[in-house]
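Standup notes, structure subgroup. Blocker cleared on the 2-phosphoglycolic acid input:
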Amino acid sequence: MDQLIIANWKSNKNFTEIEAWLNDFAPTIKTEQEVIIAPPYPFLKLVADKAQQATNLSLAVQDLSPFPAGSYTGAVSVQNLEGLQVKYAILGHSERRRYFAETHQDVAKKVDQALANGIQPIVCLDTDYLADQAAALPEKQLEKCIVAYEPLAAIGSGHNTKPKEVEKVVERVRIVFGQVPVLYGGSVDPSNVADYRSVVDGVLVGGASLKAKVFAQLIERA
Ligand code: PGA
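Run returned:
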């Protein structure tokens, strides 16, 4: 499998800033890498157009509605995304769980929506609820997920979890989910990204993806 490198912009950036980022973004993406950008919803089309021109660049959403299309004001359903070439959905990020009270069951509904509509779910987890989140998912869906191990204390803190520690969690994830791709997220930057190369199948990057040049450097060193 290709090494996945995901830029999660969270709720940062406006239209002008994203246009500038896309103009500045000129990394050397190696053939065995896939770079994925997860912009805020309003900018999906802008990034989709860039992704179409570039090799190995694809698009993710940061969340999904747990419901199909219908009367769910404010929610973005999988149907809304048709035609935008969205390949991945980041689901159950700790910030969704914390600030939007998302439960394991909510995440399970979103995984179901994604899988039923050809979007690959990336389920974010920390160790203390790994088993509970897995238990909320139908067994046959576990192996269809990509899992992102995102230790709470490492996110946005500058204190990345050491690769040796991550390695142990990868084993635990695979015991529960099966032979799924596992990513690591939490203060990954150009100075430490290479340390994870042999440990995980990719990285989920927040802060260090916000500047195009820093993110390009991270990709080159990954
Ligand atoms: P960070 O965020 O790289 O800023 O720590 C990672 C994440 O929240 O996915």
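Discussed briefly. Helices lie at 15-24, 44-53, 94-99, 104-116, 130-135, 139-142, 163-177, 212-221.
Next: hand off to the docking folks.
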